[in-house]
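Reopening: structure tokens for the fe (iii) ion complex, inputs below.
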Amino acid sequence: PIVLGIESSCDETGVGLVRNGRLLGHALASSMDEHARFGGVVPEIAARAHTHALRPVIRQALDAAGLRLADVGAVAVTTGPGLSGALQVGLAGARTLAYALGVPLYGVHHLAGHVAADTLGHGPLPDPCVVLIVSGGHTSLLLVRDLARDPILHLGDTLDDAAGECFDKVARAFGLPYPGGPAIDRAARAGDPRAVAFPRPLPGSYDFSFSGLKTAAARWAEGHAGRELPVADGAASLQEAVADVLTRKAVAACREHGVGTLVVVGGVAANSRVRSLAEERCRADGIELRVPPLGLCTDNGAMIAAVGDLLVRAGAEPAPLDVSIDPSAPLEYAALHPVASL
Ligand code: ATP
Ligand code: MG
Ligand code: FE
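Re-run output (same inputs, fresh job):
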């Protein structure tokens, strides 16, 4: 069957259509611009934007795939984690579609979606693989087996801020626009990555910590009060520190677990230095590196459809129509079917 996937956990309204591991078409709307002047996503604004965007984005995705609603054989939706109002809008839409079409509904863990995004570009994931998820809300090292069947093992997590959050907040301190990740990436091109010696916290652990790095970068910027801030050097040095920590731990995890494939996913996987350093270090260790195509790194509906498609093909139990959202769902299984609370 053709699986229609809906993503609405944060500020992106995404819809994708997947069949048998193949992406048929997808569409995306973002309320990012509406949050820019607040310096971060405002939950109420995001939820409202989803209510406006969902129907047209479903239409655009179907058009992109050359399909009609009646062709859809299953619906998958992010049920957590994420902003509760935003998640509710996606789930309401997905539930309505599944009911009206008489097709099964699957609740999907947002992070499993980020992992599955890579299958759309590069085919099935090898079992096992190490996955580094780096986004605005998460920084985790995972040991993934069969995404549709097996529990996902956490090797490490951030103890404070996520890597993307660190980029976003430091960008603000550097006077760069929101979202900060892409802005730092651009600014870094003209900078010297060795200009500032930013810290590499928690060596020897698979956990991460970025709040010290964030503070160090803010202090460095403050130290230039009255003088021109060498933004490019600061951006390049920060990016180098983040990329160094992320890739060093990911490669060490592969080595320790005898895993031959590293998958780097999430919005920060779009970072050019994270990509190039991961490539360099994986090559040196004979590890295959997989990173989803740029457009599928950040939140999108295709990745949710990809998980739905894996679940359908694995014969997983669909969610009940009254499945509820779980805004703080821990990552254990790709299918997220919390028992309805009422
Ligand atoms: P989550 O998936 O954890 O709920 P999210 O929805 O914010 O969080 P994504 O959409 O996957 O995550 O990623 C957004 C994050 O990625 C932002 O923090 C953004 O700054 C960062 N990002 C995007 N492009 C780049 C880049 N080129 N370099 C660094 N960071 C980037
Ligand atoms: Mg986002
Ligand atoms: Fe995300």
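The mean pLDDT is 95. The first helix runs from residue 32 to 35. Marking as resolved unless the reporter disagrees.
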